[in-house]
DNA sequence: CATGAATGAGATTTCATTCAT
DNA sequence: CATGAATGAAATCTCATTCAT
């Protein structure tokens, strides 16, 4: 890695960590520079200005997030909708786990009042929603999924997938686990899988009758 | 209302609206004063300082939110767990709908780096979690609810209840509805009810809520 | 005492105590009002403004201080210069002891940049100096005092008389005594008296030879 | 001198001059910046904040003042106590003359209500007192000084040495001289020397300083 | 590339004072 | 007499950014 790239990386890491704790407006450029151990003027030099740094971070995160959804959706011709949805869920959680500071920050700062940031978010959110919805619709069409309200499923998915990273302290409160521990993610995936299989997935014969598995998954 | 109280009210309303759009750090005291149409010095006069104003707003919101959960839990001896849970869901959504700006702001700013705010949040979140969990456990004990992972149900509930107000733009994107419209809230409640009845409720007898027709509820 | 006078008194006491610790500029009108337990608006009402309060306090103190010097000087026809000087020293120290907060504050704030305060100080200082000098000169003329530099004696007297109240912490450091304790004042007067008798007072025969008393005064 | 150092110097000079006239609280940072001809933000940049500037000034002055006393005391093995005391007196007066604004300000602001400033003063005052006292005690032990109350001599010395710079207007009033004129300092030193030789010094042999003629020194 | 100095705007807060009640 | 509300000015400090080196 070149010297310049290394400095950029240091700045971005410091920024994520600080934005996460203090928010964008609450973090000063000098604080970032101090934490990164670089001269403050370099931030303007590399990212234009403070907002440029913000956008860079957001784009990085959202690009990765959305592309998980999109690339998996593209596999739909080859694999079942169930399997596809399962992969999406797993990969999105793991992606957020790996970038949990960034994830928390992006999910939160979403509402920021900056034309550029808003447009950025809009674009990626639309894309993400589009593919998730298409995936669910495909599952319904293929009769792999029950004929539920597609919109509500999409929302419930989104709520569950972002929750641990936008409200980490609630997870800690309930589970006494950090949302970025492997153990938590594995357990959480299992729970979501059970919820999907009971609420969304169609049974072999497609009956609507309650599908109580013998094995009780209770912690 | 006395003159002082009126001024306080004006300031708080202006603050909610601005905090919501720009975030706490992104909002200047002067901007609040301007929007409220009062002299800037009065904010220090009434709330001590900017953070005092923030705390006042948070306490107001969290107090109301938590007390809904708590007071309904106290009714558990008189009504069924299902009916109790249903009321909690409904009232929490309506409460947030009425205070949607404040709700959005509080759910987001949760992560703020201020000892006092963090302690405040902790206290209320703990309380809220405690009662919701107790409610779910009671339902399981009474065999009204299936024997699921209590923790996961609590989290899924929280995720669904806060989602429309913490990520309103996602709701708009998916439903093309504002999360503070009556129509949205009614529909959303129905969806949650269906999810509960299929995922959580035991099937001995029907839910107390308006029976779900066989006809699929799909939008 | 009427209610108004009582309030005025409370304000002045609070002001002295605060001015003493924080200085004039460092003390806010509201702080005085709080300490006095009265409404802030009353200070403007009674003293016109903050500076009016300051002047009132200074005049009170300086009037008392100067009048001690003046009234004793007037007795010079009746008593010896030695006895007169002794009374002045004693009374000035006791006066400052009684008003030690005020004394400390006035001696310090002397240098304040306010035309009115400066004029005030000038007037009283001139008067005080005038009478002390006249007293010393009279003693020299009467041959009660040695023919020393009158100016230097005046200055040395002033330095000794104001020292304990303008630099109280130095006194504490050296004597481990508070300058407002009776014990300190008595001891201090004795020391000054000894210094005067050895340095200033003329011996019976007027010799310049060292006047070592047998009794050593060494603490 | 580097650019940064030059700016610092300008700020400190302006601050001394203003603090001296208006006091610390009475002087605004903006006023200092204006007088120094630099941007106001640079004061925070170089000194952290207003109080940091104050502390810097105080430390500078007190360090110099105390070190005069200490370094002379260290010479006591080589020279007589009389000669040592004489040098201390002379150097302290000249040091204050050179920094008369700063001296006046420090002697006055001593009573400031700031933990840091108070601690600072305490430390230096203790040190200064310690060495002066030790010096006087040494003189007594060596029989160079009469067996007087050591404490009182220390206080009288301090009073005389600080007087011209803590109450300059009194000096002006009495002598019609500025305490920072060479002429004043020379005369003042002679007077102090006379007082010492008559009050403190033992009469075995003459003082080391220019012998006092029989002719009276009376102005 | 990197740095320390500098800048001007603006943020929060405090203040003395006034006014209506 | 006394009070709480209100005001406008000013004070301190922070900030993002620029610039010369």
TL;DR?
With 219 residues, chain A is mainly alpha-helical.
Description:
4 copies of one chain form a homotetramer. With 219 residues, chain A is mostly helical. Chain A has 2 domains: 1-48, Arc Repressor Mutant, subunit A (Orthogonal Bundle); 54-219, Tetracycline Repressor, domain 2, CATH 1.10.357.10. In chain A, 72% of the residues lie in helices and 0% in strands. The first copy, chain A, has 10 helices and no strands. Chain A is elongated, with a radius of gyration of 20 Å. The interface between C and D is large, with 55 and 54 residues. Chain B binds a DNA duplex (21 and 21 nucleotides) through helix 1 and helix 3.
Question: Can you lay out the helices and strands and say which pair or pack?
Answer:
Four copies of one chain form a homotetramer.
Chain A (H helix, E strand, L loop, with lengths): L2 H20 L6 H8 L4 H7 L2 H24 L7 H18 L1 H10 L5 H27 L8 H17 L1 H8 L6 H19 L19
Helix pairs in contact in A: 1-2, 1-6, 4-5, 4-7, 5-6, 5-7, 5-10, 7-8, 8-9
The structure holds a DNA duplex (21 and 21 nucleotides).
Q: Specify the CATH architecture of the largest domain in chain A.
A: Orthogonal Bundle
- Beta strands of chain A, count: 0
The CATH class of the largest domain in chain A turns out to be Mainly Alpha
Q: Please tell me the overall pLDDT of chain A.
A: 89
Order of helices and strands of chain A: HHHHHHHHHH
Main sheet of chain A, how many strands, which sense, barrel? none
**By CATH's scheme, which homologous superfamily of the largest domain in chain A applies?**
Tetracycline Repressor, domain 2
The biggest chain-chain interface is: A-B, 55 and 54 residues
